Amino acid sequence: MKKFYRLVSYVPPIMTGFIIGFLLAKFIYDPFGLTSTKQLSPDEIKADFAPFWEVYDFVQTRYFEQPLDNTQLVEGAINGMLATLGDPHTRYLPPADEESAREEMSGEFEGIGAFVEEVDGNITVVAPIEGSPAEAAGLKPGDILREADGVALTGMAVEEAAALVRGPRGTAVLLLIERDGEQFEKEITRDRITIPSVRGEMLENNIAYVRLSRFGTNSAEEIKAVLEELDANNAAGLILDLRSNPGGSLNTAVDIADQFLDEGTILVERFGNGEETSYDSKEEGLAQTVPMVVLIDEGSASASEVLAGAIRDRNRGVLIGQTSFGKGTVQTWLGLSNGGGVRITIARWLTP
User: Fold this and answer.
1) What is the mean pLDDT of residues 272-277?
2) 121 and 60, same structural domain?
3) Is 46 a known active-site residue?
4) Looking at the 3D structure of the chain, how many domains does it have?
């Protein structure tokens, strides 16, 4: 079981009814705008959660080894609740992991520089970050990280595994890697990863090349600056490189797509209750007329697939490369009072 640490006070049995009503009633009015097909009354919610509080009280009063670590109990309950959803993209992040995730979105963090996901219990590399120690060491999309400094990672939560691989610059981590059924060790020295998400250049024959490595906090502004510098609409052609781009912010993907697409649909979000939200482009992009191709590979995931799919379905450009990662859901990032966070899958996304 993954262990998290935060201060949690014991809740006396006499308080449980009040707390259930107060905390859970907040959610029946759908604060995130994701209207469910059935709304429960406070009494119904209280009845559903009564066994949980009963077990909690029994453990507190009757378990033979005392005292108990309430932090582990509560964190275990959170992770168990999310695990029942069967969705690896819906997960809890303790404060340290939440901070690291937001650092990665901003483009600055310390580690080896690789995006990973849990796939069938395996910690799997989605893509090494361009210019990172992971890329220099030869890590590839699809590599499975079996051990970090002798600690087995298989079956571990992705946040816990990432915390073992991540560390201060100048320190090294010894990874046991599996690739195509064969295992080998690789020692990688961590560094401070500070990278822009976009770079561009003019190639021969007046072809503009734009490399987008992630959809981070500043990526929309960065790509706008690069397109302006390249005078993209006056180029003979444009190559948009999304290879090994693990994704990021959906809103950023929409803003970037707007640079390449004229007025129309970029994607549609479909929620569990059948409602849909359409994201549309406008007639204001910097590269809406230049002929273009998009490069993708198995490391192109999430927001990369949103952008590539919109360009393909709108007949705006041609996709070249390999089948992409295959992540068709949208997550919202929600901060928690303890400095941690939770990623909740809220919808599926559909290409135009």
Assistant:
1) 92
2) no
3) no
4) 3
The one catalytic residue in 213, 281, 302, 324 is 302
Rg, C-alpha atoms of the chain? 23
pLDDT score recorded for residue 75: 83
Residue 48 lies inside a defined structural domain of this protein: yes
Long-range contacts of 75-83 (CB under 8 A, 24+ apart): 75/2, 75/3, 75/4, 75/6, 76/1, 77/52, 79/1, 79/2, 79/157, 82/342
Residue 19 sits in which domain range? Answer: 13-84
pLDDT at 107: 67
Verify that 285 and 217 share a domain, yes or no: yes
| Strand pairing category for 341-350 and 329-335 | antiparallel
Beta strands in 37-195 (DSSP E): 91-93, 108-111, 114-119, 122-128, 144-148, 151-152, 172-179, 182-189, 191-194
Of 261 and 9, the one with more pLDDT: 261
The answer to whether 69 is a known catalytic residue is: no
CB atoms within 10 A of CB 307: 28
CA dihedral 135, 119, 211, 100 (to 10 degrees): -70
Phi, psi of 325 (to 5 degrees): -60, -40
Contact 238, 292 (CB under 8 A): yes
Active site residue 224: no
Task: Report the C-alpha dihedral over residues 340, 19, 346, 76, rounded to 10 degrees.
Answer: 50
Q: Rounded distance, CA 282 to CA 254, Å?
A: 11
pLDDT per residue over 281-299, tens digit each?
Answer: 988 899 999 999 999 999 9
CA distances from 10 to 16, 57, 127, 133 (A): 11, 9, 43, 45
Q: Which two tokens stand for residue 56?
A: 């909690």
Q: Please report whether residue 95 resides in a domain.
A: no
Domain edge (last residue) among 162, 193, 224: 193
Query: At 183, which CATH number?
Result: 2.30.42.10
Tokens for 302? 């999430």
Domain boundary among 171, 193, 215: 193
